[in-house]
Amino acid sequence: MIFKILDFLIIINAIQGVIFALTILFSKYFKNTTNIYLGISMLIGVLINAQYFMMKYDWYSHFPKLAIFEDIEFVLLFPVTLLFYYLKFLNPSFKLKAKHKLLYLPFCISVILNLFVGGHAHFKIYTIDNLTWVPTFYAIEYYASILLNIVILIVVYMLLFRNKSAIKILVHHNLKWIKLFYYFHIVLIFTWISLEILGKLYPYEFTFILWLVLTTFFYWVGYIGIFKFRLAQNRYEIRRVIDKEIKTEYKKPSKSKSSISDEDNKYLQEVKNILEHEKIYRNPKLSRQDIAEKLGISVGYLSQVINNNSEKSFSEYINYYRVEDVKKMITNKAFDKYSILSIGLEAGYNSKSAFYTGFKKETGLTPSEYKKRHLS
After folding, report:
1. Are 338 and 245 contacting, i.e. CB atoms less than 8 angstroms apart?
2. How far separated are the first and last CA of the chain, in Å rounded?
3. Considering the chain, what is the average pLDDT of its residues?
4. Radius of gyration of the chain (CA)
5. From its phi and psi, is residue 252 left (phi > 0), alpha (psi between -120 and 50) or beta?
6. Can you give the pLDDT at residue 310?
7. Alpha carbons 157 and 151: distance in angstroms, whole number
8. Is 10 in contact with 211 (CB distance < 8 Å)?
9. Using CA atoms, how far apart are residues 78 and 145, in angstroms rounded to an integer?
10. CA–CA separation, 342 vs 335, rounded Å?
11. How far apart are CA 45 and CA 111, in angstroms?
12. Are 14 and 20 in contact (CB under 8 A)?
């Protein structure tokens, strides 16, 4: 009974995986070149699940010609499409080259040889006189699939944790998401390898554990991941639009009526130049230390300059620039197709709550209220 319940859950989640994959591939809201690789990977995962069910319920005995489907090693394709997803996510301008396409070769060879054998064994189209090479081929195919998955995990590790140039392209918020996705990927692959070893050592059915992990992956990607994918793509596109179209002109923060020294004025002007031209306030981890080091002054003196000349604390001063950035974007029709949250995160806020709190503190309105009021 337990296994029947588990099978039911796996079937439901596999259907869910198909729905999520099709949503990613064909929905105007989620569809983009990065997510295409993820959608394809999810569909491949569903096909792997289908192979398991057809084998478990002995469909191949009842429908012998379907056995050709069992022979196709989708585990040779799954890690490749996921690798391209990682590459495209880390660098949206990434283009597949001939050397990348060679990674499809093991799967293509596997399909061709399996179809060749299947024509003899399953369809009786022709006769192959010498089949002594087939067991060796299956063994090579099996171990190659394990090796390929491990190698790609290592390659992705190098991309995420050792490739500084890729990390520069990505904002910190997105990097946390893709690392979490990678950890889930590790669990999936090593669960599969561990169960393969257990299956050879013990005469029990452990495979259902892998399919539970795989279907949990579908669920997690569908309900949590899709939002992150869209958010990441939004932020990348927003940056491109900003570079091309937005020439921000800021109002000057109000000055204190108290006397201002020439020295203070000089450093305040440098702070403004850095913020307005380098846009460093878009860095969610920006600190007083970062700006003080750029100016060659102490953190304490920087705070004094800002407080005396703007009547704002450092955090309020940075918030002012972020809010001005958001205001410019949400009232510009070029940004209408992007979510307000992705605009706020791109302006330098590190969370939804920080964005809405900071915006309302500066304007007295939520971002949505401000947009509605200024576009009506």
Report:
1. no
2. 60
3. 81
4. 28
5. beta
6. 80
7. 10
8. yes
9. 10
10. 10
11. 17
12. no
Using CA atoms of 132, 136, 142, 143 in order, give the dihedral in degrees to the nearest 10.
180
Which two structure tokens, joined as six digits, stand for 42? 């999810």
Largest distance between two CA atoms of the chain: 99
| pLDDT at 264 > cutoff 70 | no
- Do 199 and 206 touch, CB atoms closer than 8 A? yes
Q: Using CA atoms, how far apart are residues 348 and 320, in angstroms rounded to an integer? A: 11
CA angle 122, 54, 58 (to 5 degrees): 75
pLDDT, residue 367, reads 93
- pTM score of the predicted model: 0.63
| Collapsed DSSP state (helix, strand, coil) of residue 249 | coil
Length of the chain: 376
Cα distance between residue 62 and residue 64, in whole Å:
6
Tokens encoding 252: 């000057």
Query: Each residue of 314-352: pLDDT tens digit?
Result: 999 999 999 999 999 999 888 888 889 889 998 999 888
Q: Which residues neighbour 20 within 8 Å (Cβ) at sequence distance 6 or greater?
A: 39, 42, 218, 221, 222, 226
- The C-alpha atoms of residue 371 and residue 351 are separated, in whole angstroms, by 20
Q: Which residue has 């398991």 as its token pair?
A: 52
Assigned token pair, 256: 């204190």
pLDDT tens for 276-321 read: 888 899 988 899 999 999 888 999 998 888 888 888 899 999 999 9
Per-residue CA distances from 234 to 34, 228, 258, 323, 346 (Å): 12, 10, 44, 18, 9
Q: What is the dihedral of CA 365, 369, 371, 372, to 10 degrees?
A: -150
Q: How far apart are CA 21 and CA 78, in angstroms?
A: 14
Q: In whole angstroms, give the CA distance from residue 164 to residue 145.
A: 29
Nearest to 375 by CA among 333, 338, 342: 333
